[in-house]
Amino acid sequence: MSQLVQVEIAGNSSPAPNIYVLELFAPTLAEIAQPGQFLHIRCAQGIDPLLRRPISIHAVNRETGLVRIMFQVVGRGTEMLARRQDGLLDVLGPLGRGFTWGQDRQSRTNPIPAPVDGSTTNQGNIILVGGGIGAAPLFFLLQELAATQAAPRVKVLLGARSADQLLTVELAAALGFKVQIATDDGSAGFHGLVTDLLAEELRQKTEYVYACGPTPMLKAVCTLLSQAKVPGEVSLEERMACGVGACLSCVCRVREPGGEENHQRACVDGPVFSAAEVVW
Amino acid sequence: MNTTVNLGGIIMKNPVTTASGTFGFGFEYQPYVNLQRLGAITVKGTTPAPRAGNSTPRIAETPAGMLNAIGLQNPGVDRVAQEIMPRLAELGVPVIVNIAGDTVEDYALVARKLDGVVGVAGLEINISCPNVKKGGIQFGSDPRSAAEVTRAVKAAAGLPVIVKLSPNVADMAAMAEAVAEAGADALSMINTLVGMVIDVDRRKPLLANLTGGLSGPAIRPVAVRAVWQVYKAVKLPILGMGGIMNARDALEFILAGATAVAVGTANFVNPRTTIEIIEGIENYMRQNGFDNINQLVGLAHK
């Protein structure tokens, strides 16, 4: 169950221009957090900026009780957060429905049935696709997948505008995963889009795809998955106020299994949705 | 110490409720708030049929506030009456259901379907939603239409009826007088102020709905003034709201003439605001020698 807590800031680093990683000492959050979930953080002490900022959980160490969040400075709230070095942070979380993996994957409504990790029915690749800051929550998923039998089948595709904006490449490699990179300007790895890499990878037998990144990228991922008839999940972003499902600000258009479309809340029904259910 | 108030026939054990649309149906906040401590729970605007609401973006942050244009997304009165109210009723806290519609008949229909539903302690007529094309504010800006809706709802249900007034009118007191005449049991004020944000990078309005309702501490002085004026003009109990963040903010409204207060946008910032206000008001009464909350209502006028 999510909590409203004051947690201690244990560290602040900047792995890339305009990107910050805050390390929080939060043993109870570390214990219950799932990949793809987020923390709703109060950035200002006063009333301006007023609202919390939803920031995905980037990494968790359950032994030390440390939780990391990684974020891009995009406005006044994240700017204030980036300046924090120590003291207490007002955190609501963990919130949202994260990525499903392992046994949990069966519980997700998904028009295309997906086999469970470790089963023998479909031993295809499991591909993670991250664009820009979207790499942040995927690393937490990699931490969990590293401990499963599926680990050798996991492939990581990371994209960014340029080499200096690439995130989590070394971290993913350090967990033993094979990482392919793409940059818009060709300054590192493949010169082009990370979704071009995905299109190539989907020619091989693929069991499941997880994606997080900018909206055009996620839209392209969903199109590719639909063409290749491969199931997967995407993490969406929408302007959010309450974070707990009350205010109905952060809704996304979703197609129900029956074909009916409705609004679902990114904060509690997501932020991770089945790729097949998102209406773009 | 007596903190019980009577809001037009709705008996609240303390003067604190939630503002419609900011607290869902209550359960969303259960991990953080002991709902049974609230004076009342005011739930999301309910219409005859389910509504999908507006496109996104639905909100924009503004200095010390926010704009919203949700567009009355709700599951419809049948689901509220049959599925949600039975669960809410178990809490034993009075529930105020905010009702909305496109026509006078819509309001009456929703009221009729909620009449007698266990747990429903009163209705709040939303004649001031700035974010839907039909209904809402069109009833809230013309005293005759507002009175007509009020009469229709009173005739349709034997429940206490609160009319929620819009600040987007020239004369709020005239609106208050019109709905009082039509049989309203209480007034709630203020709904949001119509506002707009332009995205300078995209060179377009930020909200999909173009305009939205401004809430949060930015509007509090406007709301306090509205309560002050209407308290002087009309002899109906007032549910005051608009940017209340803490107990002192709430006390401003009470001293200006509000019998009870509603916490809205603050729930998003600090989910425990309602509880902190209940405790803060009690502390204030203790420290200042008041043993009955009703002694404070409108005291700034004396």
What is the averaged pLDDT score of chain A? 92
Low-confidence stretches of chain A: 106-116
CATH superfamily of the largest domain in chain A: Nucleotide-binding domain of ferredoxin-NADP reductase (FNR) module
Number of helices of chain A: 6
Reading off the top of the CATH hierarchy, the class of chain B is best stated as Alpha Beta
Q: Tell me the overall shape of chain B.
A: globular
What is the CATH topology classification name of the largest domain in chain A?
Rossmann fold
Oligomer: heterodimer
Greatest chain-chain contact: A-B, 30 and 34 residues
Mean pLDDT across residues of chain B: 96
The CATH architecture of the largest domain in chain A is 3-Layer(aba) Sandwich
SS content category of chain B: alpha/beta
Helix-strand sequence of chain B = EEEEEEHEHEHHEHEEEEEHEHEHH
Polypeptide structure, described:
The complex is a heterodimer of chains A (280) and B (302). By secondary structure, chain A is of the alpha/beta class. Helix content of chain A is 19%, strand content 34%. Chain A is built from 6 helices and 15 strands. In chain A, strands 10-9-8-7-11-12-15 form a 7-stranded mixed β-sheet, sandwiched between helices. In chain A, helix 3 links the parallel strand 7 and strand 8 (154-160). Mean pLDDT of chain A is 92; it is low at 106-116. Chain B is α/β, with parallel strands linked by helices and 302 residues long. Chain B has one domain (5-301): Aldolase class I (TIM Barrel, Alpha-Beta Barrel). Chain B is 32% helix and 21% strand. Chain B has 9 helices and 16 strands. The radius of gyration of chain B is 18 Å and the shape is globular. The chains are: A alpha/beta (280), B alpha/beta (302). The A-B interface holds A 1-4, 42, 47-52, 92, 238-252, 262-263, 268 and B 21-24, 28-29, 31-32, 44, 52-53, 56-61, 63-66, 68, 70, 73, 216-217, 245, 265, 267-272.
